[in-house]
Amino acid sequence: MAAAGTCGTGTRSTGSMVAAASTNNVTSFQRRGPRASGADSGCSRLVSIAGTRPSVRNGQLLVSTGLPALDQLLGGGLAVGTVLLIEEDKYNIYSPLLFKYFLAEGIVSGHALLVASAKEDPADILQKLPAPLIDDSYKKECDEDVCSHKMEPDIKMKIAWRYQLLPKMEAGPVSSSRFGHYYDISKRIPQELIETSKWHGFFLPEKISSAFNVESCSLTPGYMKLLQFIQNIIYKEGFDGSNPQKKQKNILRIGIQNLGSPLWGDDICCTENCDTSHSLTKFLYILRGLLRTSLSACIITMPTHLIQNKAVIARVTNLSDTVVGLESFIGSEKETNPLYKDYHGLIHIRQIPRLNNLIYDISDVKDLAFKLKKKLFTIEVREFLCLSSQS
Questions:
Q1: The pTM is what?
Q2: What confidence tens digit (pLDDT) does each residue in 357-366 have?
Q3: Angle of helix 277-292 relative to helix 310-318, nearest 10 degrees?
């Protein structure tokens, strides 16, 4: 379904993409007040979309990341029309989990998916998504883990890990109508859910050819092809906010894996002074313009630890709405540090968007760790508590 491989072809030209990005600096999906006539407002129509809810802060339409603890850290969820950038951990072990959670949540919620990768076939990625977890099973997992910590002997000075990010659960089967679900990473999503879902795959080796030439577009062939593919899906299937969908409104979840890696034809990770550093930033600029005028949300994983030019990293951060970094303990001194012995890494909330404003928020929660258990990926808050010993 990708567009033709020249700079001037496709549903819209690259120039029109840039124009859309420059004229749509803020997302338009914001709650409106009730009208005097008593008719339904625009918000009521948007909130009726399965798997969404309005933000309690600004009325922005939100979708779940597939990890309720992360939703809480981001202010309730991921805003429609925005980009979530995941800074990959060093060995790319844990970041794919967040990527899969996002896609699995889309399938369970009935959202449309667009999966793009230069490394793995999107069909294979979907087959490896985690299975929805029944709520009472999740509660049992959490209770057992908390009890194991309570069994430790009390000492005068002790590091306590509080489970503030684990909400109170209600027993019952998983439901597609609720906001945010839990997943069992030890099991695969049922095949019937994949078969009934609507998804689009972009596998770079199948879309690109050696004869593809886009020098005048200042974009690498892979980025250009992907932009055209995303644009076609948004406009042809009615996810464009200015062209309402004929059928019931739905959300398009876009997942892009390992963006900026050499597999995408980008040398930004290979040298400090690369010739195509502007290609990645221009791609993000145009992509964000497309998202701002559509019922879509995007997650991108990127190996930022391989980018040697810090100025490029700063520009990539500024062109993303939400930025979350994963720091794995593997191969570091923290791996043998007793303070972190029960955990696998740290999670850093580097940027939270302040939508429809010129500046962004910074998370107040700084000391976060994650743990990969048999079935669950959990995020926990670490605090130092002084406990008096009993005489």
A1: 0.78
A2: 666 666 667 7
A3: 10
